[in-house]
Task: structure prediction
Amino acid sequence: MNDSDVRRETLAVTHGERGQAPAPGVEDVVVPVHLSSTYSVPSIDPDADLETLDPDAGEYLYSRLSNPTRNALEHRLAALEGADHALAFVSGTAAIAATMTAVVRPGDHIVAFEDLYGGTKTMLTRLFADRLNVDVSFVDATDPENVAAAMREETALVWMETPTNPLMHLCDIEAIAAIADEGDAVFGVDNTFLSPQFQTPLSLGADVVVHSTTKYLNGHSDSIGGAVVTDREDVLEELTFLQRVGMGSMLSPFDSYLTLRGIKTLPLRMRQHETNAMEIAEFLDSHEAVTRVLYPGLESHPQHDLAARQQSGFGGVLSFELDTDLDGTAEFLGALREFPLAVSLGGVESLIEHPATMTHSPLSQTERDALGISDSLLRLSVGVEHVDDLRSDLASALSVL
Ligand SMILES: Cc1ncc(COP(=O)(O)O)c(C=O)c1O
Result:
């Protein structure tokens, strides 16, 4: 049928699009946002396996299963972490949940850093321990011996973050990889705080790396997303099933596009985040109204040597404590102009966060005291603005104390 033979109602739905996917003869420099939720196929295929559709082989049927924009992002994420495979999820939380679900079964045991992102800790206790009969041991992993001591026959997963939030504790990835390996457990590292620009845990022996791409990878505070990177075929197979079918928690095409775009400037941004963070850390460290600064780039940081050894940069996040109480802290925050009070981190803009009343408010006062999260502890995500403007803003706000 020619277009002249079909009615306006049909033209309105189909004209110009049939046969246009993706765009024959057009070589886009930037991967387009492939929003189509479904793809027409040339004919029926009795051998098609929905769970293993390979986008690299042009196998597209339904966007939850495979999508060209997401596929491009997954390739880039894998390459940055030095791996062959990555899967993009709807959030960092979804990436972590899928990874843990891929690895552990009821009756298994997990060894985790006691100082994890609060959401991950809650997931481990309320979902895995309380509902799925998975035992979890939280340990002080700054000393690998504590990880070794917690390992059991049933330990299926060892889970770490380094550096941690907001106390900037580090763990030795290589040493813990050897312990996990010895115990036949999968070793997962949340690499959100440094991004692959400054740390590649797989090269240090980890089996799986996860990211909240919401942070540095996307870098512009306008997308929520997550990723898992691994070369372990057994874990990858489970994760692919969970991402596509078991949970349906894949990243959307538009968020994949935003993250692909953000990653283009990751190396540039990370360098500037680090330069600015180091200057701000040194400035705060020398200020009389500041009692302590937690930044692995400072030689005074107790794990500075480990940071210098296993990282290729110190990152853009630091915490500091004011010589004041909760009221004084609120006054200081109110005097800032360049640091919006907001959770999250890793965007080009600087942010400040008050752990005691924001990210760590679900913890009791006793738990916060035990961890060292006081009412005057603040976390900075240092952005890429001109550092003189950031420093003078902090100096003028500190003068109110
Ligand atoms: C280290 C770390 N991991 C995971 C997450 C969770 O990521 P998302 O908010 O993308 O679910 C966060 C969020 O702040 C985080 O800081």
About this structure: The chain has two domains: 68-263, 266-398.
